[in-house]
């Protein structure tokens, strides 16, 4: 058998690198089976890692002779994945039917669950007639969900988390936005509030370095740069890329970068490295109608800002009651490292910048 494989130029394809610091994953589905002819760069398997789900592409053209791993099993980087007969002749197929991708395509967890549901449907079919009413249904947790659960629990166990709140008057930034957006409309740019809070946060972080630091063992590591993690909604789910080197960038610059990241996220063109790292996180529950929440710190980061919905409320201005558009802000932080005074001062700094937004228009 080994001699026959040698004569037929059988190639053993190993599991490729899945991303920085990722050594293993779960093979959730084979997209090409034994006996199928595959082309170079054609996706042949779907793998779920602790962070995202990716396609594994074939490194050679040929017929798959053996699969070393079954769907649902753990795979390890550098270990055998499948054997490919590279001397096999490609079948005649109409042009344009080959699915290929030059880089791993990042899939959402929602797409992963759909693929699992499709595979399970091959084993058995359920109808409303043979499924009893009431009761409960058990489904296995995905690797990503287990990782999220583990990290959240570790965050709760290891971080002394505290949250401070404030209210932000959005009147001035709404007025500035309404003035600028018609000007930028010709260039296809629409200023948003997430990028505004990114610009405000980066300025505040440089004023208060401890908010951008983290604990490593018995040392404090101060980051001399600001990389902000932000959520981007896509048709396939929520991705959290990192916007790099935010220090000194204007509202417009950050909005353009955010638009670019969001576009590539929707097109499934984000790489794993673009979703790794980050020194500070912004979570915008306001787009879903959240009025108030306590965001959870994402280790090893030490702080996270929660944005919420804008609502008109009566407030006192110069001894008069007026109606203003107000956003609740929540800052969660690691109290082991950050004192309450620093956290409150930091959140007030962000609030002050947003309420006097002219400084967001220039590079700092």
Automatic annotation (TrEMBL):
Residues in Lipoyl-binding domain copies: 10-85
GO MF term list: dihydrolipoyllysine-residue succinyltransferase activity
Biased composition (Polar residues): 126-136
Cofactor(s) the record lists: (R)-lipoate
Disordered: annotated span: 88-139
UniProt xrefs under PANTHER family: DIHYDROLIPOYLLYSINE-RESIDUE SUCCINYLTRANSFERASE COMPONENT OF 2-OXOGLUTARATE DEHYDROGENASE COMPLEX, MITOCHONDRIAL, DIHYDROLIPOYLLYSINE-RESIDUE SUCCINYLTRANSFERASE COMPONENT OF 2-OXOGLUTARATE DEHYDROGENASE COMPLEX, MITOCHONDRIAL-RELATED
Protein name: Dihydrolipoamide acetyltransferase component of pyruvate dehydrogenase complex
Organism listed in the record: Babesia microti (strain RI)
């Amino acid at each position: 058998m080994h001699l026959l494989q040698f004569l037929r130029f059988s190639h053993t394809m190993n599991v490729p690198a899945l991303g920085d610091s990722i050594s293993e994953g779960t093979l959730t589905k084979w997209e090409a089976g034994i006996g199928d002819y595959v082309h170079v760069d054609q996706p042949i398997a779907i793998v779920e890692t602790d962070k995202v789900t990716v396609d594994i592409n074939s490194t050679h053209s040929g017929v798959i002779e053996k699969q070393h791993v079954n769907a649902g099993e753990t795979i390890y980087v550098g270990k055998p994945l499948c054997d490919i007969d590279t001397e096999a002749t490609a079948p005649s197929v109409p042009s344009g039917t080959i699915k290929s991708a030059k880089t791993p395509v990042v899939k959402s967890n929602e797409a992963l669950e759909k693929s699992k549901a499709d595979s399970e449907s091959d084993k058995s079919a359920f109808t409303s007639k043979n499924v009893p009413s009431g009761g409960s249904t058990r489904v296995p947790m995905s690797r990503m969900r287990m990782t999220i659960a583990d990290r959240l629990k570790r965050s709760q166990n290891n971080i002394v988390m505290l949250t401070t709140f404030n209210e932000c008057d959005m009147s001035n930034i709404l007025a500035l936005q309404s003035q600028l957006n018609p000007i930028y409309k010709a260039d296809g740019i629409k200023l948003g509030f997430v990028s505004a809070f990114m610009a405000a946060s980066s300025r505040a972080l440089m004023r208060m370095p401890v908010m951008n630091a983290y604990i490593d063992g018995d040392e404090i590591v101060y980051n001399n740069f600001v990389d902000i993690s932000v959520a981007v909604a896509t048709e396939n789910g929520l991705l959290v890329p990192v916007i790099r080197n935010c220090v000194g960038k204007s509202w417009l610059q950050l909005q353009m970068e955010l638009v670019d990241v969001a576009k590539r996220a929707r097109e499934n063109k984000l790489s794993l490295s673009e979703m790794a790292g980050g020194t500070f996180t912004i979570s915008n529950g306001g787009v879903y109608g959240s009025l108030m929440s306590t965001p959870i710190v994402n280790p090893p980061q030490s702080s996270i800002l929660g944005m919420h919905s804008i609502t008109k409320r009566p407030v006192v201005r110069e001894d008069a009651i007026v109606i203003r558009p107000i956003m609740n802000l929540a800052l969660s932080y690691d109290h082991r490292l950050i004192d309450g005074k620093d956290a409150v001062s930091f959140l007030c700094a962000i609030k002050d910048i947003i309420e006097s937004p002219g400084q967001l228009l220039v590079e700092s």
